[in-house]
Amino acid sequence: MSLISKLRGKTTARKPIGKVTSLGRLANGGSEPEIPPVTGEFRVNDGPHYLDVLAELHRILRPDWYLEVGTREGRSLALALGNYVAIDPDFHRQSPPLLPGKRAHFLSLTSDDAFASGFLEREGVRPQFGFLDGMHLSEFLMRDFINYERVATAGSAVALHDCLPFTHAAETRDDAVIATGKPWTGDVWKVVWWLLQHRPDLKVTVLDAWRSGLVVIEGLDPANTVLSGLYDRFVAEMRDIRLQDFGTDRYFAAFDVHSSSRFIETLRKAKA
Description:
By secondary structure, the protein is of the alpha/beta class. 33% of the residues lie in helices and 13% in strands. It has one domain (27-271): Vaccinia Virus protein VP39 (Rossmann fold, 3-Layer(aba) Sandwich), CATH 3.40.50.150. It is built from 12 helices and 8 strands. The chain has an 8-stranded mixed sheet, sandwiched between helices.
């Protein structure tokens, strides 16, 4: 723990604690982040750990089918409470949840191939909740969102990870950073921007979940083809632009960041 953290009585990181509590300046009305920024950070997302927020979403939404892209070690998959489909071309060693009376499918494919395989349609899988955390490049996440919405239950929800970058180094498109062990959000922030511009029918809620945010999108419409029709334009206009050139302030001014704990409490009451 750094000296400044000791002086403030704060930790420099969040760890999953199994529940969502009132963490973060947005939950507590503070003017400064509860976690001190480190060198190079231009923002701090100081809400609850994103896995704790995901766990609460599972408990509240109780989806019959859950679909996840980017499972890897399975930390997020372990939160599933019902039937699920996990997609990852490179599953790492894990202990997946095996739930009595529930179905579990592991597709060791790229997400593009998994969605194109027709497996979901053949098995009658129409997810009510999903988590998209695969390749951290904007065109990949855009395709994942388009494909997920196409197979999802109408009106359902999906969560996106890593859309609130905190350093410009982390939002590079160079995936070689993975091998260094340094944080990598990639440039998936561009998908949130595009959705806000072109899908006003969706409810997009940006949460302060540590460390790189969580975006919950509700009101999915499997029949909507706007994004697929604009995909080539999205790639042409957005793929090669960096956040500092696009405008960091411009991006973050496009939406409000909400307290994760307040969002969860509101959702719980609405679903009660």
